[in-house]
Write a structure and sequence with these properties.
The chain is α/β, with parallel strands linked by helices. It has one domain: 2,3-Dihydroxybiphenyl 1,2-Dioxygenase, domain 1 (Roll), CATH 3.10.180. Helices cover 23% and strands 32% of the residues. It is built from 4 helices and 7 strands. The chain has a 7-stranded mixed sheet. A hairpin with a 3-residue loop joins strand 2 and strand 3.
């Protein structure tokens, strides 16, 4: 069964937001990131990866929200099989977010990445990640 292993927050102040989740909820800093698409932190409670991100451009953030938007950005599910979940997503009317996948350089057939493999549309404008490899700081599928 797929498990939620990742939630990403888009924010304009990554340091303040990360400090809140570390001090209030005791989350641990797993990594600090500064990639071409975003800067921020990966935090973990041991089971779930919480990404605190400030997107550097609208393409990576998704043009419907853009880099200046703040809030829950996407949810990530670790799955046993990308092929099987692709069929389930398609049957549910979900399609790959080719715009974001291309901007991130992910979603290519046969490639497996840590932290993000393929992004899809979800209901209510929420983007979903699916990954076989999971996210840094999380427990695996049991």
């Amino acid at each position: 069964m797929p498990k939620i292993k990742h939630i990403a927050l888009s924010t304009q102040d990554v340091d303040k937001t990360a400090k809140f989740y570390i001090e209030v909820f005791g989350m641990k800093e797993i990594a600090k990131i500064d990639s071409p698409g975003a800067r921020g932190y990966y935090l973990s409670d041991g089971d779930l990866n919480l990404a605190i991100l400030n997107f550097k451009n609208d393409a990576v953030a998704g043009v419907e929200r853009g880099k200046g938007w703040s809030g829950i950005h996407h949810i990530g599910f670790q799955v046993e099989s990308l092929e099987a979940i692709t069929e389930r997503l398609k049957a549910a009317g979900s399609s790959p977010r080719d715009d974001i996948n291309q901007a991130l350089g992910v979603g290519h057939a046969g490639h497996r990445y840590g932290n993000v493999e393929v992004k899809y549309t979800g209901p209510d404008g929420v983007t979903v990640d699916v990954s076989e490899t999971g996210w840094v700081g999380t427990s695996g599928l049991e």
